[in-house]
Amino acid sequence: MSEPIEPVAAIRAEGVGKSYGATRALDGLDLTVRAGTVYGLLGPNGAGKTTAVRVLATLLRPDSGRAAVHGHDVVAQADRVRARIGLTGQYAAVDELLTARENLVMFARLYGYPDRVARERAEELLARFDLVGAADRRADGYSGGMRRRLDLAVSLLQDPDVLFLDEPTTGLDPRSRLQVWESVRVLVRAGTTVLLTTQYLEEADRLADRVAVIDRGRVIAEGTPNDLRSRVGGDRLDVVVRDPADLDAVADLLGRALGVRPTIDAAEQRVSAPAADRMDTLTRAVRALDGSGARVADVGVRRPSLDEVFLALTGSAAPADTAEVAA
Ligand SMILES: Nc1ncnc2c1ncn2[C@@H]1O[C@H](COP(=O)(O)OP(=O)(O)O)[C@@H](O)[C@H]1O
Ligand SMILES: [Mg+2]
After folding, report:
1. pLDDT score for 322
2. Distances (CA, A) of 284 to 196, 240, 253
3. Which of 27, 61, 80, 232 has its CA 20 to 30 A from that of 53?
């Protein structure tokens, strides 16, 4: 009789619970992340993302349930877990008064690399994260994107098998966000398993192989980004008209052109319809509108937002930014 061949998951959580006083931050969290993939934990502020990362990274002890990294228990075998993971979060340890090169060499030494190796590692990571040009400038003068790239570089000094990124692009401008995304892709191509948390559906969509939507400390939906999108009805075509009197006619027109039933949002002067295929839907809509006499202010296809995902999955809007409760 042969054993079933089931590779050990890079990350596994089973029924993990964690409370801060009366706040139930994690309430039976289940996750399985396959090695070499990017996994997205998607949820609004207060959903439990940071708590989950801290438990998985051995920084916080769960009250209940179990979690393991490459089969090593995060509580009983915390040392073995720590040897295999890297973490960047809101409170990365980079010294802002030092340059990127100095930071990397300092941390490399701290991690026990001999001097020469520490310098080599620093150069390698500066190149990998496009920081060579800024290597001798103090980190306090860096843009948000450069700063995150330096955080990433520091967290990779020990060649982690599993990297946790807690909201790696929150607060970054669009260009810096793209740079961080590219850095994450580079890592994954090198074989690193990445678990990232985000409040942006688009970010999960761009980077993650699979996504868990979490709400109030538990997974409410799981799958590929496409699975999730199709659960909320996929992409939407929006046509905004200049004159509300045109709404019905435009809805009628789009309904016939696309073979779907559009919805009207009178307050926004907008007609929306499901877009099965972005380009095809857009092309057909523009053709139908062209010469129809309706005056169109805007037309476009967009992905559903996290708010819409939430609405579809929970039946209620994502909770607003909750203030941090003091411990
Ligand atoms: N140190 C803490 N003390 C008390 N409550 C906390 C603490 N950290 C987080 N919380 C609460 O736990 C819940 C989950 O928080 P968190 O894991 O930070 O969520 P997220 O990272 O998704 O925003 C929130 O209600 C938050 O206010
Ligand atoms: Mg957080």
Report:
1. 42
2. 37, 16, 11
3. 232
